[in-house]
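Provenance and format

Records in this collection were gathered into a single text stream. Each protein contributes a sequence line and a token line. The two records reproduced below are adjacent in the stream.
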Amino acid sequence: MRMKLTTGEYRWCRLIGLFYKDQDGNPLRTMGMIIDINDEKEKSFILDNLLNELPGGVAVFKANQKLTCEYFNDGFTKIANRSRKEITDLIDEGDLRKTLISPADYQRFTSMSHAAASAGERMNIIFRCIDAKNEMRWVHMNASKLRDEEGRPVYYCIFTVPAEETSLFRSLSEDSATGTLVAERRSLRVLYCNTKMMDFYQLPYDTAMTGRVLSDIMPLDHRLLSGEELRALPSDHYAEYHRLVQDMYLGIRAKAIT
């Protein structure tokens, strides 16, 4: 509450009171104290205003099976294009992730976030967010672990909308008739795979690809490049290969990023 001082100034205070009763249960006396929390309250207001002025969304989540949210700013509601009450209701009902994340990205998002939370590692995930009008936009989530609470990690998450050019490239890549696959050359772990490649390997769109090893998801007769060819990939231009796989003639262009 705010208390008015003799100087006319108002200050935020916290009142703590104890009520004592006699043997018959009648009020006997009251004791209490007033604590000045004005500085703490004003700093909280300043922090809230600063967080709400950020161009992206900020939220603090506790990684449970049922997601617990300790805080989210106005920017988070703007990215989701929903009211604070709608977001709060989705969190309370345990439906936030399934409602906001595109079904095509949901399995990948959950597998990556669960793996990172189990190891206490930073999260860096790009996914498609569905807003209240059922429209989708690409969203980038960067999350850092704050602490452990009751054996569960608590993460500070920053949500941003990638530049329009980046979003357009991703949308074109997903809708392209050309398969696109990015993987680490040494470990063959998948970094990115578009839907055309999923079709080629006959995998459901909700299959988690990021972080998986290529040898775990494709049979030997589906290997497009040999280990020797991968090691010889140039980094300054695309090398071209031609393959006949399952009666399909494929033209392949590949290069090493690093």
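Adjacent record:
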Amino acid sequence: MLGGKLNRRYLTRFAWFRYAAVLAFTLAASPLAADPLSDSRKGGAEGVALTVPLKQQLETAELVARVEITAVQRLIDHALSEPGMTAVTGYVYSGVTQRVWKGASVAHIAFRVHLADCVEKLTRGRQYLIFARTNARGYLELLSCEAAIANPETGSLLAELEQYYQG
């Protein structure tokens, strides 16, 4: 009996180490893992040089905007919730748009971030540069943590966006 418990424990630990190794290799080989400060830059649509991850975000996003978060609400899955336990599957963020580069220009915006896509919670009162897409139900959502960049004014990112869209 003791040997069986040790054997199961060993196999469980081995499986977790194997899973971690596969995950680390997958993330390292991912195109999003490219260093944004490296010399590998590609020309934008108007000949402006953009970093590879930024270019990928711009191509797949339906909305690119600078947003100040004004409210954060939980996205609750009532089917998984039980009495005394609420199943939170993500967050719904409301905000005021400061600048829209791509997509419909609106004053107020709401978008979702599912915990399966990103476990980092955005902070109320902070500004983010977001790259959002519309899901099958028509809601705007972010598909990764990289789709929300905090304090975009600290780097040259806003200048790159301005040059890219002005031509």
